[in-house]
Amino acid sequence: MTDVDRDIYREEILEHYRHPQNFGAVKKKTHSASASNPLCGDNITLELRVKAGKVEDVGFTGAGCALSTASASLFTEWLRGKSLKQIGKIKDEQLFRLIEVPITPVRHQCVLLPLHALKRSLPQIT
Amino acid sequence: MNVNSLRKQFPILVKHRKLAYLDNAATSQKPKVVIDAMDAFYRHENAPVHRSVYKLAANATEKYEHVRDQTRGFINAKHREEIVFTAGTTASINTVVNGIARSLKKGDRILLTEMEHHSMIVPWQALAKWRGFKIDFAPLASDGRLDMAAFKRILSKRTKFVGITHISNVLGTVNPVREIIRRAHRVGALVLVDAAQSAAHMPLDVRLLDCDFLVFSGHKIYGPNGVGVLYGKLPLLKRLSPFIYGGHMIEKVAKEGTTYAEPPARFEGGTQPVAEVIGLGAAITFLQKFGWKSIRKHEEELTAYALAALGSVSGLMLLGPRNAKDRAPIFSFAIPGVHPHDGSALLDREGIAVRGGHHCTQILHESFPLAGSMRASLGLYNTKEEIDRLVQALHKVQKKFHD
Fold first, then answer.
1. CATH class entry, domain A3-121
2. What is the pLDDT confidence band of residue A1, given thresholds at 50, 70 and 90?
3. Size of the A and B interface in Cβ pairs below 8 Å
4. Residue B211 bears catalytic tag
5. Are B71 and B56 spatial neighbours (Cβ–Cβ below 8 Å)?
6. Which residues of B touch A63 (CB under 8 A)?
7. Nearest-CA distance from A44 to chain B in Å?
8. pTM for the whole structure
9. Do the chains contact at A41 and B401, CB–CB below 8 Å?
10. In chain B, what is the straight-line distance between the N-terminal and C-terminal CA atoms, in Å?
11. What ipTM was predicted for this assembly?
12. Residue B321 sits in which domain range?
């Protein structure tokens, strides 16, 4: 990777921040939960509609930095269509893989914020 | 004041020559004299204080108690016993709040302001819930100063305690504490002044202020972490219950019960942070050597310069008063569309250290409303050139996010 590719403020991330995927409420949601980062006050609410063991629709609302917003955008894309069984196996690394750039420890919580919300919304399986 | 030669006295500024350290409201850097004083104590003089009779311990005790005299002079307290060493501002506030709370009744009112640090709000909230006190918050005026008309309206005979920050750690606002104290005393309320920020920027005179309690930390006035000061008027300290129970703070311990030592020992339970207190003493000497006159002059110039420079950045929302004489060199700002963490991470790439977040003042940020802000806070070693670099870097941040 070149330095530009490894930049957490590269254009793809900023694009997700400006125009996040799946931003908004979910109709007939079956699960939802919020999580916040006490360090910066960022918060995210994740909503899911789970049907027949699969994520049929997913969305998020809230306010966060470029990293947490991009992470939520990428992560909700990933979640769509996944089975609860697949979701049950999710690890932190999955979110770092989606972001694709190395994240320094001080910013880990930004990337993981959507996962915290997911774990709260599906406490039985995650 | 020659800032270049002053900067050479701070080893960290010499090591990171290109770093513009603008996070002094969080913690200041330490001059060599402070580091050396603590190093020398550990190398040659380390011993417990107020316990043992051998020479090394007696010498350590003498040095520790000398800093109490020095601190008394630093804030112009009347008695040396009015100076309590704590772990920091938070520990000082918790000691006062928990002590005072014992003499309060259900329904008594506590008056704070919307610009208080969490360390003033949270201890009271925890006790209010348990003991049934009511907390009022005086709001801000639109110019970033305290809304004094509202403050006067809220203050009543039922107000038993007023907690007020001398200088806001976000807005830089210098509060009219003398007037606040006078008015609070008229209704019979006690006043605690949070001087965590002001202690680094202006002379403190507790007798002139007539405050009942005043607290600050060592690490924000170029001294070490882990040490702070609690000043209280002696008759009040004599009546105040201890907060940290254990060794040293007792008069006599028996199976039937314990009687407590007089102040300040009553509030210094446990083994004292001797090296830190000695470091604090070195920091006070350092500040006094420069003198408030030259520190104030330099910082007032920086304040006026930074206000104008930050004001020139289009789209930047500066919090706090616009008038240099109403504020200290602490500047929080927001750029719409740029999260403070992203902004401060990008400034870091330009070698500029600022804080991004809510700076332990979520209630204040809600009032704007903002989730957070970026904060550049200056100290006596900062320069106009560093402010220029900050402004240039902010233009770059805006370009990155808005192009």
1. alpha beta
2. very low
3. 39
4. no
5. no
6. 371
7. 13
8. 0.92
9. no
10. 42
11. 0.80
12. 3-24+291-402
